Amino acid sequence: MSNSLEIAEFPNETLLTRAQVKEILKISYAQLDSHIPDSELPRTRMNGHTFVYRSDLAAYIQAHRSSGSIRKNSVKGGEA
Fold first, then answer.
1. Which pTM was predicted?
2. Separation CA 16–CA 43 (nearest Å)
């Protein structure tokens, strides 16, 4: 199985706009700009526009993927 993530929404684009990134991540511009640092999701700025390489977005998504296991909350002092 490949570790790469295919972003199907924009299959032919190497650079994604902020609008495309927020659409893929299902977040607002404020969340994208304020809560995701450049160190986690690098941006490329050209001519007043901001872009994200699709490979960087795929890596960001992959890095935040959970293992899929479900933890049961333990209750101190007995059973729930």
1. 0.70
2. 10
DSSP characters for the chain?
--S----TTSTT-SEEEHHHHHHHHT--HHHHHHHS-TTTS--EEETTEEEEEHHHHHHHHHHT------PPPP-TTS--
Q: How far, in whole angstroms, is CA 42 from its chain's centroid?
A: 11
Residues in Cβ contact with 40 at an 8 Å cutoff, skipping those fewer than 6 apart: 60, 63
Residues 6+ apart with CB under 8 A from 8: none
Distance CA 10, CA 1 (A): 22
Contacts of 25 by beta carbon, 8 Å cutoff, 6+ apart: 32, 61
Condensed to tens digits (0 to 9), the pLDDT of residues 5-29 reads 677 777 778 999 999 999 999 999 9
